[in-house]
Each structure stands twice: as C-alpha cells, then as structure tokens.
Design a protein that fits this description.
Chain lengths: 272, 272
C-alpha cells in the first residue's frame, strides 16, 4: 500500500511522521522543496512524490480551496482512497459527488493542532489521544472508510467519531470556528494591551487562539457560512442579555443568566 | 504579630495555609464550625478566633457585600492593618475613606483561583508564582502596605503589582470579568451540548470558567458596573463586525478583521 501525503504543514507532516512511526512507508508531496528536505532530514517521509498516480491512499492536507481543486482536477489511480483533512466537510463532499470519480473519497477532520503552524510544529505524537472525525454518506465506500480508520488508529488517535458532513459542519461552528472569532475579537479591547500583571488564567484561555492564520480561517468560515453566522448571532444575542442586565441595573436578571450558564455547563459535563 | 483571616473559602484558607507554612501563626474566623474544624484538622490555622479585636493584621477573605459590612461596622484594634481580597477595589476604598477609621486599610487582589471553590480547594501552594495586586492611594499607610507585601511574598506570590483602585477595576473588567460572561454565554449554544467528540482545546478554553458562582459574580459585576458594561458593549460591537462580514459575504473584510486580531495579540505578547 503506497501512501502519499500532499501538503506538509503541521497536520500533513504529522500524518507522515505518525504513520511512518507505526511502520507504514509514506511519501510526501509539497510545492516547496525546503519543506520536503526538512521532512526527509527529520525522518518524516520515506521519499518525495510529485504525483498521485501510483498512490493507493492519498491524504490531502491542504487548505479548502486547494483541496477542492485537487479533488476535482488531479489524476488519481483507479480505486485509490483519497481523504482530505479540512475543517469543513459539506462543500467538499458535494463537490466530489457532483459527478462520477475514479477514486474513493473519505472526509476526515483530525481534531488536533497547535497555536503554531508549519512543518516545524509537526510531530509523530501530535494526534495522541485526540478525536478523529470521519464523515460519510450513502456513497462512501465502506472498505475505503475502514482503511482510513485503521490508519487513524495507527497514527495514535484516541477515538474515531462518525457523522455526516452536515452534522460535522453544524457542530464545528460552535466547538471551533466561533471560538476563534471570539478570541480574536476579545484581544482587541483597548485595555487588553495595558493589562499585563492583571491577567490570570481566564484571560489566557480567552485569547490563546486569537492569532489565527487569516487566510486559512477566512476560507474555512466561508465554507460554513450559514452555521457560523447562526452561532455568531446567537452569541451576540446572549451577550446582549448580560449587557442589558448591567445597563438596567438588574442584579436578579444577571444572577439568573449566570445560573443558567453554570447549569448548562454542568449538564454538558455530565453528558460527556 | 497576630494575624486573623476571616472567611475560610478557597482564598482565605489558602492565605492561612501558605502563611502558616512560612512560619507565621494564623487564626481563622468563619461562621461555620465545620469549616473551622476542617482548617484545624488540616493544619491550616493555629486556632479559631471569633473577633478582630486582638489582631494586628486582618485579612477579610469574604464576598464584597460582607467585606463592606465588616470594614464599616466591625471592631478592629487601633492601628490594625486590615486588608481585603475582593475582585473589585473602588467601592471598598471609597467606603473605607468616607470617614476616619482606627485601622489602616490595604486593598489587595490575589490573582489566583480554581474552577472550584471552598476550603477543600485551598492549599498552601495556590499562590505560587501568581500575581498579587495591591491598590493604594494618598491615604494608604506606607508601613501597612509594606507589611502586606512582605506577607504576600511569604505566601509565595511571584510578583507584586501596584496600582490605584480605579486602574485595577478598569483592567479587571477585561482580564477577568468579561471572560467569565463570555464563557457563560458561550456554553449556552444549543449545539454545545450535542457536540462531545467534536471538542478540541479551543472549546475547552472557551468554556472552562462558565460555571461561576452566580451570587459572588453578580456582586462583583455590579461593584464594577460601568467598566464591565463598556467592555461588554465593546465586545458585542466587535463581534458584530465579524457577523456583518459573514452576512454580507465579505471575505476581504473577514480577513482584515482576523489579521487585526492576530497582530493585536502579537503586540500584546511582545509587550509582556
């Protein structure tokens, strides 16, 4: 089984390194030669590969727009398994199944990452214990799905989560996408920059992921625009309730709002 | 020097335990006998104390309203140092200096805590390396201030930060108070509860502090209402910009907003 990983950023290079650590031969494809050399020097790949045509399994570890171009126009071997790792799944699935393909598509979303990006942040242990989401529909090939899951377990993922692309996109809007917007907006308070010495754990938590790559995340957001818009509007509406309680000096209302949030959090923790 | 700590919750009992570990004799005051017994059994205090009248140093580790009542009506020894640990400082300082007092007041805010509260969460090492904020004005006694700082260092705090009560309250609105509101509001998304398996670090960060004690935090918020209202409105306005970019399909605007946040965060980190 020949595996090719396209795109050696933090996720792609970690896919390579963790698969190779598990004994699978892996070939890397990347437009920058420096990155391929880094991967070779650090033992992340067995060699470079410039095309997908010999590959039995291809992982596309690329931003959404490039992934879509590859899924739509690149040449794959007949029956090859082609998996992407994008943080949005609906638009990709719709594209792939819009016409017959000679390859077998599996959508995945490895729920791991860091605040930093690029191959220098990659490691063979990045995925250890993390969730691996696999999306499928009635047109997904069951054998291809099984192979991808086997490889995910070899990479060290702790749990394989199955769902539809639509379910993935709806949930990812609140569990990840909106969190990045909030963090990015939070840090812009005029007083945030003047407040070192005052920050405890809550400020660190709130702003850790503020430094997103604006190009990648804008792409991700607009591939999931409706769900994210709904979540953003929902949060603004909820925050406005706290604002109104403050503005109208309504302590009872504030107490009720905070109680509701505390109970909701306890409910979520119990349900875990 | 006789030290009395009133209120043996997580902060008060940790004050006791860390001072005692540093060799200071400490007496505890708490309305519930069970709590006093727990403190005695766990070696956090040398003994129980029912009044402040013999104390050279008193720490009031109580919610804002009770702290204000004590500062205004309790009997202290002439010249005693009385420090509070509330998360708001302006209202307390104004109350204390509204008329002559026979004690010397110092406002403090230990920047440490946990998601849990009560004496069972207390420890002699809670403050290790944390920031200790001391507020003062022209009416603060310099010797009292120095004694409180000496005790804070003995408790293990890593850094003593000086400021006015007004500066403290303005900064705490963004570094702590608003973070708790956002977390509390974030967790209420209808999809949050359905999304286990989808959550990575960003969701955990965003919701860790959602489970606030609604009574304490409502008090804190209304003691700092204007600053917190301004910060809440500022965040709602900023979030509305991202919302508008999504609603109007303006990718360029979204990219610019995210870039601005990333640069702001880098600026804050550099300034640290």
């Amino acid at each position: 089984m020949k595996i090719v990983v396209s795109g050696l950023g933090i996720i792609g290079a970690s896919l390579c390194a963790s698969l190779r650590a598990a004994g699978y031969p892996v070939y890397g494809k990347n437009r920058s030669e420096n990155v391929v050399e880094y991967a070779l020097e650090h033992g992340m790949i067995d060699g470079e590969e410039k095309s997908y045509e010999d590959a039995d399994v291809v992982f596309l570890a690329l931003p959404p727009a490039v992934t879509m171009r590859e899924l739509d126009t690149a040449k794959f071997k007949d029956g090859a398994i082609v998996a992407d790792i994008c943080g949005v799944k609906g638009v990709l699935e719709r594209l792939v199944f819009s016409r017959p393909r000679n390859y077998r598509y599996v959508g995945t979303h490895p729920m791991a990452g860091k605040e930093t990006s690029g191959i220098r942040s990659a490691s063979a242990t990045l995925f250890k214990g993390a969730n691996f989401i696999v999306t499928s529909c009635e047109r997904t090939d069951p054998d291809a799905l099984e192979t991808v899951e086997t490889l995910a377990r070899a990479m060290g993922f702790g749990r394989i989560v199955h769902c539809t692309a639509a379910e993935h996109d709806r949930k990812i809007a609140i569990t990840s996408q909106l969190a990045h917007i909030v963090s990015n907006a939070y840090v812009k308070s005029p007083y945030a920059a003047k407040s070192w010495g005052f920050t405890g754990g809550s400020f660190q938590d709130m702003t850790r992921i503020a430094g997103v790559d604006e190009n990648l995340w804008t792409e991700l957001y607009f591939c999931n625009r409706e769900s994210l818009l709904e979540e953003t509007e929902g949060l603004i509406e909820r925050l406005t309730e706290y604002r109104d309680a403050l503005a109208s000096c309504d302590e009872e209302k504030m107490r009720a709002l905070l109680r509701e949030g505390r109970e909701k959090r306890e409910e979520i923790r119990r349900g875990r």
